[in-house]
Amino acid sequence: MKLSKREKYSIYAAVVFICLFIVLQLILFPLMDKRSRIQRTLQVKTKILEEMLSLKSEYDIIRKKADLLETRLAGRKKGFTLFSFLDRLAGEAGIKDRIAYMKPSTSTTTNGRYKISSVEMKLESISLEELVTYLYKTETSKNLVNIKRISISKTGTEREFLNAILHVETFEI
Questions:
Q1: Residue 7 has pLDDT above 90, yes or no
Q2: Average pLDDT of span 38-59
């Protein structure tokens, strides 16, 4: 069977078109798709890396604070107890005779590494200046003592005195 020139060109064009289609479908498009997937994966991994670096710096800061806390806790005098510390501070502030009660308690933290020592104490008929002095001495001590909760109410006929219930805490190793 003899084909005319025009039919031969049509067949050649069809063969070239089919070959080009096969090359595009089996080689070029999969490569381009894989490249775009790799780029998306790279973007996701880059974001994850940035987040991990951010978390690492945050962890380093927390770790340094924890180390400082442990150093300060270890630097306390041997036999430190929150109860005796608060009692001594009350004596220094001149309000020891106005302590109605002191209730000590302890609990452990969730990781069990530290104990939380706390004291609830009631101060009766003290002036605002005396209370502020006592609170200042408590909060600024180097023993890492903080006041977790405070309740203040006025008392007396002139209402010049205060009653205060303090909940004071500190960590122990």
A1: no
A2: 95
Percent of the chain with pLDDT strictly greater than 90: 46
Instruction: Quickly state the pLDDT bin for 172 (edges 50, 70, 90).
Output: confident
Q: Based on the domain organization, do 71 and 87 belong to the same domain?
A: no
Domain count of the fold of the chain:
2
3-state secondary structure string across 34-99:
HHHHHHHHHHHHHHHHHHHHHHHHHHHHHHHHHHHHHHHHHCCCCCCCHHHHHHHHHHHHCCHHHE
Question: What sign does the dihedral 121-122-123-129 (CA atoms) show?
Answer: positive
- Its pTM stands at 0.64
For residues 60 and 12, state if they share a domain.
Answer: yes
> Which domain range does residue 133 map to?
82-172
